[in-house]
Design brief:
Layout (H helix, E strand, L loop, with lengths): L3 E3 L1 H7 L3 H7 L4 H9 L9 H11 L3 H4 E3 L5 E2 L4 H6 L2 E2 L3 E5 L6 H11 L5 E6 L8 H6 L3 E3 L2 H11 L4 E7 L1 H5 L1 H12 L4 E6 L17 E4 L2 H5 L12 E2 L9 H27 L6 H16 L8 H4 L8 H12 L20
Helix pairs in contact: 1-11, 13-14, 13-16
Length: about 350
């Protein structure tokens, strides 16, 4: 059953308020979300859970299960994204952040990095444009004012180009984004990768702010406070490409070790701030110091921010990131000060 996944499109279409509906029949929203994103493989799902979801969608269990395609990664050159929560081409990415955490900067940077490629960058401009929207507009090929305009442009592009399409959360609340996804699924166009942002920051306080997603990036107020950007929390961000079947084995193995270390580092950080390192075992001290170096290494200078930061933007390939993270994990950088790893590209410079 490794190649099976939920027919999320069918669920979205037939059960618009999936989280609420799932709770009403005794299902945990986290379980349903993890099944939809692939964090929980279908093979590990309880039969009664699948039956309950099929009942909600008024279909047979067989209709609820489809074979997954081999997802292809959209490499951005942004270390924390490509390593911890990568983008699958043709998938849907959701940003969970409060205003001022840099979500629109990340979106604009990704669009900037896809300039002069076989991607057309389309942005559905929100009615109430806020701070940072202009950065995104400057990196777009097409700016639309309505979903109809988006639809017309997508169909005019046809099978010629890949598309990166960004919209705000209002399209989720209105249901327009789900309609578009259903239409795209049956249209046979080139893949459209969708980015959903929330300029108002309302998504932070909801369990399922966008419904089922392929990739979710959780922005972190603590990282923002310490000016460590991009402020994407590696422990709470997730992607369907995190499945071992979708990642190269080396990437997956190193990633799991890094995630475990970052969780331990986060547990220790506040305690170390309060009591110092003398109260901890040697193994805890080692985990703290290596986690601190890894956190610093994951910061990155952006091209679009160069006028403000005065730091040249950097692109780091996934293979370079994997190798560097492995060096940090195995202690090859133990003699380095974490501060020297802030906003570098690769360890070799």
């Amino acid at each position: 059953m490794d190649d099976l996944k939920l027919n999320v499109s069918l669920l979205r279409r037939r059960v618009p308020n999936l989280t609420t509906a799932a709770r009403s029949v005794g299902l945990r929203s986290a379980t349903v979300s993890n099944l939809c994103t692939g964090k929980i493989p279908i093979g590990r799902a309880e039969v009664k859970t699948l039956v309950a979801l099929a009942d909600l969608a008024e279909c047979k269990v067989d209709e609820l299960l489809i074979r997954s395609n081999n997802a292809e990664m959209l490499e951005t050159g942004i270390k924390v994204i490509d390593f911890f929560a990568p983008i699958a081409i043709g998938s849907t990415v959701g940003f969970v952040a409060r205003p001022g955490m840099g979500q629109l900067v990340v979106l604009a940077e990704i669009f900037h990095r896809m300039k002069d490629t076989n991607y057309t960058r389309i942005f559905l401009k929100p009615e109430n444009a806020g701070v940072g929207i202009q950065d995104v507009e400057m990196e777009c090929d097409i700016i639309c004012k309505s979903m109809k305009e988006v639809h017309d442009h997508l169909w005019s592009l046809g099978r010629e180009k890949y598309v990166l399409f960004a919209a705000d959360r209002s399209t989720v609340l209105s249901g327009e984004i789900f309609t578009l996804q259903d239409e795209l699924q049956s249209a046979g166009l080139m893949p459209v990768t969708i980015f959903l942002v929330d300029p108002r920051g309302e998504s932070v306080d909801e369990d399922e702010p966008y419904g089922p997603l392929d990739t979710l990036w959780q922005f972190d107020a603590e990282l923002v406070a310490r000016k460590m950007y991009p402020a994407i929390n590696p422990n709470y961000s997730a992607s369907t490409l995190l499945e071992a079947s979708h990642l190269e084995s080396e990437h997956f193995a190193v990633q799991q070790k890094a995630r475990k270390m970052m969780r331990r580092y986060r547990e220790l950080r506040h305690l170390v701030d309060a009591f110092g390192l003398d109260h901890f075992s040697q193994s805890d001290i080692l985990a703290f110091e290596r986690g601190k170096r890894l956190e610093a290494y994951l910061t990155q200078a952006f091209y679009i921010a160069e006028p403000v930061t005065k730091l040249p933007g950097t692109t780091v390939s996934l293979n370079e990131t994997i190798a560097d993270v492995q060096c940090i994990l195995d202690g090859s950088t133990d003699g380095m000060d974490a501060g020297h790893l802030l906003y570098i590209g690769t360890l070799e410079g």
